[in-house]
Design brief:
The chain is α+β, with helices and mostly antiparallel strands. The chain has two domains: about 140 residues, 3-Layer(aba) Sandwich (Glutaredoxin), CATH 3.40.30.10; about 45 residues, no CATH class. The protein is built from nine helices and four strands.
């Protein structure tokens, strides 16, 4: 089922979403400030022939939301009115209903989920969670960390089952990987959102 105009209008603006955050707000805003956008990327959004509506599903406890939703927010600010962003909380209505209709691979409530809509609120594209290229790179680095620390044990073992001291080390390692790969991740997110936005406009009737 398509996203309705009423569901979109129920969403918060990007700034209103930031204002209501109770967790990770400082890191969220820092990620927004840290984003480096090329002149070519900014021009690509400013030069979209028609505005695109983007409905985001998010929650402030989610690491991928904290990392990637600020990118959409910056793009909206730089796009000169060509992106119209609204944010719904995934775990509250009407966001919960929209999430159930946009499950990742038909089963996962992955966020952020970005739903691109034309002027008539027809769905013209989606973007979910993070780029596959980022997932692949981080997994390679995580495996390398485990190989360098055999005392951590099996990398496929759930982190919750690890001794507290080891769990802390693994979490610190994961944080280091996220920091190290942040520039690459940001560039990949921008590239993919740009591609979806351009395809969304191409699908719209003139």
């Amino acid at each position: 089922m398509a996203v309705t105009r009423e569901q979109f209008d129920a969403g918060m603006t990007y700034d209103a979403y930031k204002a209501q955050m109770t967790r990770n707000k400082e890191q969220f805003e820092q990620n927004e400030k840290d984003l480096q956008l090329s002149a070519d990327d900014v021009a690509a959004f400013k030069n979209l022939p028609r505005p695109v509506n983007v409905l985001a599903l998010a929650e402030d406890w989610c690491g991928d939301v904290v990392a990637n939703l600020p990118i959409l927010g910056r793009l909206e600010k730089e796009a000169g009115g060509k992106l119209n962003v609204r944010v719904l909380l995934r775990d509250q209505q009407p966001g919960e209903k929209v999430m159930d209709e946009h499950l990742n691979k038909g089963q996962f409530k992955s966020i952020p989920t970005l739903i691109f809509l034309d002027a008539n609120f027809n769905e013209v594209g989606t973007w979910i969670e993070r780029p596959d290229s980022v997932t692949k790179l981080r997994e390679e680095k995580r495996r390398a960390q485990y190989a360098a620390h055999p005392e951590w044990g099996d990398p496929s073992k759930p982190i919750a089952e690890l001794p507290e001291e080891v769990r802390t080390q693994v979490q610190q390692g994961a944080a280091a990987i996220r920091t190290e790969t942040k520039p690459f991740s940001n560039s990949e997110v921008v590239r993919e959102i740009r591609a979806v936005a351009q395809k969304a406009v191409a699908k719209q009737p003139a």
